[in-house]
Amino acid sequence: MEDLKTTLDLDDLVNLETIFIEIGREDGLKNGIKSGALEGQVLGCEKGYELLNEIGFYDGVTEMWLKILEKGLDIHNAKKPINERLIKQLTSLRELISTYPIENQQNVEFLDLLNKIRSKYKVCTSLLGVANSQKFKKISSEFNVGDQGINDSTNTHGGNMNF
């Protein structure tokens, strides 16, 4: 009994609550850092997917219009002289898209590039005369990537392509 009295000092008993608070705080910080990193990775993946989905839309539409214009067709499928300014703008847009980084970025310069791509795309659709019908629309959060069937008649990207 005397050994117990000597090992447990009265100061230790008074500070016991403080010791538990410090231990709990340290554990909480470790767990918070771990779960925060995981949450950040998940959010980064989701936002990266959204950004590249938008970039892919712009790239696909631009490629389609360049192929249509190479054949000398307009949107009504009638033969028409090729608009060199439009082809130059579409080619410039494709070059901007090709410079968009697809790896992880620590800076925010890629957002400036995204805004340039969006602006150039608006110019191109305006020159094409389809500015009001070809707009990128985000996929609603109620759908998962795997939920969209091939035979789905809804166009999730909003490219209203009536020829």
UniProtKB/TrEMBL annotation:
It comes from the Eukaryota. This is DUF1715-domain-containing protein. It comes from Gigaspora margarita.
